[in-house]
Amino acid sequence: MFHFGRKIYADNNATTPVGKQARKAMTAVLTGLQANPSTPYRDGRLAAEVLDAARRDLGAVLNVPPGTIVFTSGATESNNHVRAIAPLLPPDKRLIVHSPMEHPAMLEPLRLLEKEGFVLVAAKPDRQGRIGVPDIREVWDDRVGLLVMMAANNETGTLYDVAGFAKFARARGALLFSDMVQALGKTPVDLRALGVDYASFSAHKIRGPKGVGALYVRDGAPYAPFMAGGGQEDGRRAGTEALHNIAGFAAAAREVPGMLAGGGRLRELRDLFVRGLREIMPEAAVNSPLGTDCQPGTVSLTLPGHDNAFLLGQLDFHGISVAAGSACATGANEPSHVLLAMGLSPVEARSTLRLSFGHDFSVRDLDYLLQVFKIVLKGDEKNEIGVVRPAELTDAFLSQKDLAVVHIKRFPRLPGPTPLPGSRVVALGDRKAWDDLEVPRKLLLTCEVGYDAPIIGWSLRKRGVRNISVLALGLWGLKLARPDLWARLSAMREEEEKRAAEGA
Ligand code: PLP
To answer: Model's pTM, two decimal places?
Structure first.
């Protein structure tokens, strides 16, 4: 079969591979510059020079003075500065208008501010995730002190009118904090022209290393450090700078003009993919705007009748990495808040995939991708893994003599649903346990919300395991759909665990 060995990475909004220039810059620091940039002797001064050069380079790419750039551990930390900045707002300006489509790295700090007495007001996006100045005006009032609007959405690729937001906010005496993580390298980011007060960036989205980012603070904008400690970063961010990461970040940022130049090609390939996919499945819905108000390489697609976890596993089987629009990453049985905010139903959100192509994506890759999508959406390969819906789970099914049940635990330290009686529990990340798994005659995989079982199922199928079934919607889904059966099976399992503990 043509699938073995071929790999396509279409999840560049999650992270990007580290580029050659970034690797080179990092290696130079790791091998030749061991001193702390805050130390006064020669090696320390050399390290400080690298730090200054990185700040200058990033400042030049963003068209702002180097002194406005604060290096952080990533955009999550940069965004968390909103918690230190909001308390500086005047007492009569404690309303925060925001996009409901922000990344959790912004939404969660905002929720903490809400607990501290700030009032959050969400603007309303349209079906493609667009929010414009008129939508902000709709929810505005005189008490708004801060507008929090991302520049590009990570799930749909939607780009926003940041310059318009900045102008609108400034005219009303409010500040603008923009998460620009997904914009850099995909659309021109000229901070001076845009007029934002604060902006967040992350190196690993532009072929830099993970664990480093930046916060831009406009000269004169109110600022308080988020973390207490030493006086690094001019007293604005405590902690010894990760110089190798910062050098890698600056090297990656210097490649931004090349990334922008490649945007047109990427857009064409993305649009060809969408066209090809619509030929395979005309009822597929495109959730991204796809026009100039969209990142060039991103598309979010809803594929009615298909479960995204199952698709993710099956595409992975063919060497294709994509993201599910509905990221059940927190283990909660909740579809993506971004898609729900855009008006998708929970079922639609669970049928949604995000593809984000990188600059190495080729016409050959596109061809392969469409061939695989045809198999996945139209072929009968999907029947190679059985799906047991909660309504189909019977005592007869569970008491099959040659059936082994394996429950996948995503977060081993967190409490989860009680596994089915007779289950073996294996952590999702326990690669050795999965490699060593004795192949039973029949295997039922269960997980918490129905997300992990198909992914593990398809990876076992790739290893040649047959007769695999997965429990759709996971054990939490079973609990909701069949509470009586759930209670009985849970009691059996608890009895089983008690006996095992007594025997031990
Ligand atoms: N903001 C957006 C829009 C993102 O896409 C991400 C990463 O997924 C983050 C913030 C968090 O960035 P980091 O991984 O650098 O903490």
So the answer is: 0.92
